[in-house]
Amino acid sequence: MLLDEPFSALDTGLREQTRAAVITALERSGTTTVLVTHDQEEALSFGDGVAVMMRGSLPQSGSPESVFGNPGTAEIAALMGSIVLLPAVRFGNEIDSALGRISVRHDRSAGAESVSAMVRPSQVSLSVDLTHGSALVTGVRYIGPTAVVSLRTLGDPPIALSLAIPALQAQSLAVGAVVGLKVDGGAVLYSASATIH
Predict the structure, then answer these.
(1) pTM for this one?
(2) 48-191 architecture in CATH?
(3) Pseudo-torsion of CA 16, 66, 80, 157, nearest 10°?
(4) Tens digit of pLDDT at every position of the chain (197 positions)
C-alpha cells in the first residue's frame, strides 16, 4: 500500500490518533506499506525502515534509529530534525567545541583534519557547572508546559541554539544570565567542509 502524505490535513491531536490507528491496522493485516512524508517525526515513528530521498537519489536508508542517530551527512542530519553543527577540534575519541568537551559517537569525517560536530538540541541540557561549555541566555519564550530558551555560546565563534525545557525550570532564567551546558550521548563528526543546503 502507498500512503502519500495521508495525515497532512489533520490537526496535531487527530494526526497522532489516526497515525496510531493506521499503524495498528497495518501491523495486524501484515500489509507492506510505503509512507511518503515530509514530517520527520511521522517518518521515524511509522515504519521499520526509513529511506531518505534527496535530489532524486536515496543517500541513506536503514532503521529509524540508525538514520536519525548516525546520519551519513550533515544535510541528512538536518533533514531528520533540528541539529547544532559546531566547529570542533579532535582529541582522540573526543572533541573540544563551543559546547565543551564531547565524546565522539560516530565519525563520518573520513579522516578529515578539520571537523564539525553535530549534536541534537535534545542532547543539550542546562547546568550550573560552567567549566564544560557556557552560554548567554538571549531569550525565553513560554509555550504551555515548555519554554524555548534561546542561547548564544560564549566561545569563538559564538553559536546560537534553542532548547526546549520544562516551563518550571525556565522560571529562574533571565535574559543576560550565563548558564552552563552539558551534552549527553556524544557527537557525530563530519568534515568541516560539510554544508547544509
Answers:
(1) 0.83
(2) Beta Barrel (2.40)
(3) 140
(4) 899 998 888 888 898 899 889 989 998 999 899 999 888 888 888 888 999 999 999 999 999 999 999 999 999 999 999 999 999 999 889 999 989 899 999 999 998 889 999 999 999 999 887 877 899 999 999 999 999 999 999 987 899 999 999 999 898 899 999 999 999 999 999 998 766 65
Cell representation of residue 170: 525556565
Interatomic CA distance for residues 66 and 91, integer angstroms: 25
Asked if 139 and 149 count as a contact pair (C-beta separation under 8 A), the reply is yes
Closest CA to 42 of 7, 85, 83: 7
3-state helix, strand, coil in the chain (%, to 5): 20, 40, 35
Long-range Cβ pairs for the range 157-161 (8 Å, 24+): 157/87, 157/98, 158/98, 159/84, 159/86, 159/98, 159/99, 161/84, 161/121, 161/124, 161/135
CB of 86 closer than 8 Å to CB of 161: no
Nine-digit cell at 83? 541539529
